Amino acid sequence: LSILLSLLVPGHATRSPDCGGILTPSGLSYFAEVSKPHAETILRQDLMASTVPDLLHVSPKPSRNQVNSVTVAELTLTLIPDAGLRLSIDVDLGITPAPSTTKVMRLSILSDLHVEMNPEGNLEMVTSACKTSLEEMQSTEEMESKSSSSDVEKDINVDKICLEVSKLLLLPNERLMSLTAQFPVTPSCQVQYLPLAAPMFSEQGITISLQTTFQVVGMSIPLPVSPVPFSMPEPATSSPSHLTLAFSEHFYTSLFFALEMAGAFNMTIPSPLTTATMAQKITQMGSLFQEDLPVTLQAVFRSTPRVVLEEGKAALKLFLTVHVGAGSPAFQNFLSVNVDMTAGLLLSVADTRMMISAAGIEEVELSLAASDVGPVPAALLEELFLPTVRAEVPAQMNVVLSEGIFLPHISSFTYTDVNVVIHKDYVLVPCNLKLQVRPG
């Protein structure tokens, strides 16, 4: 298999998206909301640590400004179309300039952020501008001579906040990097989502286009070429969901192709027939097998399975050759039947995986491919094999598909309130984000 894959790989030069997502303004607000406690923790470490007097060299000024409380009053992220994001944070600092006094200063941080693609192909959030300002809110000082905010700025060094302002958000670069992790589909097959360019920023949200790649036994496989270039559908109205994921028809066909390449769909199907019961219908069977043996079917794909998406429904088209034989361990194949079948596909999302299952079989065609027992009429093929093939093929495929396929996602976040909407040629998955709080 690996030799075959290595021969095929050079043809895999074309890069075009087959899925992607739009993080909406409400998704951005949710990310800002869950970043607030994190920002408070970081600012507390930075600002309160910087004002602890050195134990050996006691500060000569007894009135040194000491930060004794840090509260993030507000943290917002705003979209700037065609540019990036604006991060705005208001922080209330409780400051003790002298032993018996406390005053509250408002620290405002304003920063512009954008997302770049680094040489390794990972997305990275970068600060493009940042400024801080400090003003006094209230004071318990009785004397008029208030220490100016510039004294406080000198003591607590607010400028250094701008040096690493993006770390006030909930680890955006670690999370962006986790987007390109490899996820297992089966033990020998992995999926990876690669960004093709930096995200686009518009009033609708942040749009990212991704290309799905699959590795089988550690080697990238060349996926079938998409007949239609895919681009993220424009959201018709402002979506109440945090995020809308989109998957092209080609994405699903690629998944089935990868599973087929990995051999996941090679099926051995037990049959209720024996060589003696078949000999009653096909007389030449008797001369091939003197003893009565159980009949087994081995199904292999003669062409890649194909997923077809129409408004409101998904179908899976399968093109199989079923080899009919008997004997174990030496399988003696005496009949081969071509089976073309169409199954309905059910799509849903659990956590960060898309669950896929082949539902009812909509149509099946059987035709004779090869025979060692003379001609077999189509009606007899159907009578002998149709009930078994109709029941067993989707059942065995569903065992392979039962784990689902990981969707593009970032670490620590899961998907909730999910809808799966099937359109012609693509699937939309509007959903909300939920931060999973890990114990400890």
From TrEMBL:
Boundaries of every Lipid-binding serum glycoprotein C-terminal domain copy: 237-431
Care to name a GO molecular-function term for this sequence? lipid binding
PANTHER family recorded: BPI FOLD-CONTAINING FAMILY B MEMBER 4, BPI FOLD-CONTAINING FAMILY B MEMBER 4-RELATED
Pfam families, alphabetically? LBP_BPI_CETP_C (PF02886)
Show the Gene3D superfamilies listed in the entry. Answer: Bactericidal permeability-increasing protein, domain 2
Query: Which species is this UniProt entry from?
Result: Rynchops niger
- Protein name (Swiss-Prot/TrEMBL): TENP protein
Out of the domains of life, which is the source?
A: Eukaryota
